[in-house]
Amino acid sequence: MKILVTGGAGFIGSHLVDALAEKHEVVVLDNLESQVHRGKPKYLNEKVSYIFGDIRDGDVLRRALEGVEVIFHEAAAVGVGQSMYQIEKYVEVNTMATAKLLDILVNEENEVKKLIVASSMSIYGEGAYECDSCGVVYPKLRGEEQLKRRKWELGCPYCGEVVKPIPTSEEKPLHPTSIYAITKRDQEEMCLTVGRAYGIPTVALRYFNVYGPRQSLNNPYTGVCAIFSARIKNGKPPLIFEDGLQTRDFVSVHDIVHANILAMERNSGNYEAFNVGTGKATDIITVAETLINLYRRDLKPEITNKYRAGDIRHCFADISKIRKKLGFEPKISFEEGMKELVEWADRTEAEDRFEIARRELEERRLVK
Ligand code: UD1
Q1: Which atom of ligand 1 is closest in space to residue 310's alpha carbon?
Q2: Distances (CA, A) of 294 to 208, 291, 338
Q3: pLDDT tens, residue by residue, 131-156
Q4: 128-131 — which CB contacts under 8 Å span 24+ positions?
Q5: How far apart are CA 166 and CA 95, in angstroms?
Q6: Which of 138, 150, 318, 322 could form a disulfide with 167 if both were Cys (CB 3.0 to 4.6 A apart)?
Q7: Using CA atoms, how far apart are residues 188 and 43, in angstroms rounded to an integer?
Q8: Is the pTM of this model over 0.70?
Q9: What percentage of residues in the chain have a pLDDT greater than 90?
Q10: Ligand 1 proximity of 312 Cβ (cutoff 6 Å)
Q11: Least confident range of 24-28, 122-126, 346-350
């Protein structure tokens, strides 16, 4: 079977390509974004054909789609903070390019039988919480007033009492809080809507905080594990926003690949969106300390008590739906996964451009 992976030279896409290439003919469309790549990465799979081009270009897309039966749409501009000042670019690359892909699928001849789109936990905004008096609640982002007082935990939207985070299920209303997140919701909803209307089996996978080998250590706009890794490798302490007790669901890229393969091979997930995480919450101090220990550096995380505009406090996945419908089970524990990340990062060069990125965010009042 011929499969197209957009963004297939990237962190998640390339792992997916390696798994697919064992059994299938794979074509990759990727622009080798300079913020992420320094030319062609060494890990590119030799069994696969690569088209290096821009997904916004209809002719490039048409060429990539020739004879393709399954599409994994992983290509996206991925900086959350950056999306707040490069708005047009994020909408073009994420929303508009997806629109173009769908236009081709419904208006032109093709053999596509399945579409799997990379969505994101960012579309939820804050995770789900429980209030002792009011039950399950979905608070919006913390207000500026509260954050200025350095009061980090969420209050119940009804009674104001402090609420406790609980696993976030797919039923939670979507409250995207960045342009990036809005474009991810667009991608997910456009693909599912067009898929349903035209009978193209489509699955959206809402990735939680993905980490693992090949994560860009040079792109200062990526996730916290890469940012901390690059700092620690360069002998600098990780800088922690808020008090470090905020939590996320860190999921290994290998588990993400596994979920994608299940979504392709089984029909039980068609036309639906699924969380892909571990179901476990890990706080940011634990991430920093685990990485410092694994790198064997004598460093202490620095708690800045500053905060990033639009940051959520807690979000971790309820994975019962993907367990039940796709038979997905996360296999890599946080400890194992971090160990693998560090073993890889130790062999990889990391430019510390994070200071520059942080200053840029501070200048734009996105870190306060
Ligand atoms: C955001 C997106 C998510 C995306 C991820 C990586 C939202 C809700 N989610 O996630 O879709 O996959 O970015 O691009 O928009 N932190 C520090 N110090 C740092 C960097 C981060 O303390 O130097 C903290 C942050 O304040 C946050 C946590 O670490 O509390 C996680 O940050 P990050 O890795 O950027 O991911 P999210 O904000 O969860």
Answers
A1: 15
A2: 23, 5, 8
A3: 999 999 999 999 999 999 999 999 99
A4: 128/165, 128/166, 128/167, 128/168, 128/169, 128/172, 128/318, 129/154, 129/156, 129/163, 129/164, 129/165, 129/166, 129/314, 130/163, 130/164, 130/165, 130/166, 131/156, 131/158, 131/159, 131/161, 131/163, 131/164
A5: 30
A6: 318
A7: 28
A8: yes
A9: 87
A10: yes
A11: 346-350
DSSP 155: B
Ligand 1 pocket, residue 224 CB under 6 Å: yes
Neighbouring CB atoms inside 10 A of 280's CB total 18
The SS3 of residue 252 is: strand
* 180 is known as an active-site residue: yes
CB 2 within 8 A of CB 67: yes
What sections of 153-239 are H helices per DSSP? 179-198, 224-233
Report helix, strand or coil for 251. Answer: strand
Q: What is residue 153's three-state secondary structure?
A: coil
Which tokens go with 133? 């008096």
pLDDT reading at 283 higher than 80: yes
Question: 50, 90, 138, 180: which is the annotated catalytic residue?
Answer: 180
**Of all protein residues, whose CA lies closest to atom 29 belonging to ligand 1?**
224
- The structural domains of the chain, with segments of one domain joined by +, span 2-127+168-363
Rounded distance between C-alpha atoms, residue 65 and residue 69, angstroms:
9
Q: What are 41's two structure tokens?
A: 């990465």
- Nearest-angstrom CA–CA distance, 252 and 331: 9
- Shortest-distance Cα residue to atom 38 of ligand 1: 311
222 lines ligand 1 (CB under 6 A): yes
In 3D, which of 342, 340, 195 has the Cα closest to residue 270? 195
Kindly give the residue spans of alpha helices, DSSP state H, lying in 66-178: 87-90, 97-107, 144-148
Query: ∠ CA(169), CA(170), CA(176), 5° rounding?
Result: 105
